[in-house]
Amino acid sequence: MSDSREVFQLRKEHRLDEALTKARAGFKDTPQDIWMQRAYGWVLYDLLKREIDAFENQKVSAVHLVDCLDNFLREYARFGKNIRPDLLHSQMLNLALKGSRSWPRFLAFARWWDSDSFRDEDRQPYQHPEGREMPSLALRYAYAVGREALGQASSADPGLIQWAESRVDAALEHTPNDQWLHYYKSQLLLHGGRADQALEHLFPVLRRQPRAAWAWSHLGHIQEPRDPAKAIICYQHAAQLAHQPQEVANTRISLAKLLRARGENEQAAVQVRKALEYRANNDYKVPAALAELANSQWYRDLAQRTDLPPEPDVASQAREILAAGQRAALEYRCGVVDHQNPDKEVSHVAFGLDDGVVLPYRRFPGIQNQLVGDLVEVGFIQNEHRAEDWRSSQAAIIPGLVDRISGRIERCDGRDFGFLSTSRHSERVFVPPDLMAALKPEQASDTTCIAVMSKDKKGKRGWKVLRWIDA
What is the CATH number for 379? Predict the structure, then answer.
């Protein structure tokens, strides 16, 4: 009979094949021995890690790696759930993630592994030795599940794909602004025929990756049956942004078909020509959809021309599509412009005494034209603090923060500031020096202002004039 100590010792001496033989025999004799299970599991881990390292160093083939993943993880599955949550169980998942792109049965393993098995430390970002923060094991698990579900959406068991989507949903609850989770969710929704929801999840991706060709291609794919004109702009913008021809190899085929359907044959011919050139340069097979376009009479008539128009620059139209989509997903908060700084080219909008946001003129065109005291609505992505958009507000006041107040001016002898005395408010309204100087003589007895609740240098709350309404 083998005992776990002997297996651990053989593993320590790197005699893994002997350790595996002893572990298998020991597990057969005492299948309920948790220490034998642990010893057996760590041997399987070392053996699989060795094979994955060899694959990453191009010393073994993908076929060989798949066989190792199948065999070693099948053995581990005989007892692995007895060990969780545990470092070994997490490390076995880590190895499976490394091989997931080559392993067709990863999704089934991921479901067996069970997301309830994560330890607290598995949900924390990993600090790379060079100082970079890397995604946590739990987040990488969700990425791989989403990615592989997309690759198998048309062939795998629907129940497995539904499970995979539920794991992406669960990860989004923990990290609601993660761009890759939104991308996988968007793709899965589109595959399920839920285009409107797919759009909602794609715009957070484009907000972070506005120059990613693949993201614009996906947006075009969503828009194609809904709004072909927008789809054309998205595809054309993707073609403009692509750094390598392969990024938009299939996008050009879709774009050519849409342009042809709209009668824009010259532009369509440009796309067919580029799609064919890419495949000819790389000795790739021409797909049926491209072959049909290339063999059509309209393309043959245009194929030899050297004066076809250049691809149009659609960047401005693409930005408007992106801005419109983002606005629909934003949460707007009403605030007041309480400061304009033309020298630094920024505005400040206050939402409360200690709550506000700076809006640079460059990022928020038109905000520089708002007067101090104007009410505006600022748009934010849910759960984020960075402003994304602004618009004028129809509101006249913000209860407790901004009000319209009328009263009589009280000047302070020897001082350049003053107060607005009113029966409506128990406190006087402070008038800063610049606004005192802007008063006309006839306004002293009766004037109206826009006032904001603020704090003085000592932290005392009180109303302060922002702007005279009738000055």
Answer: 2.40.50.140
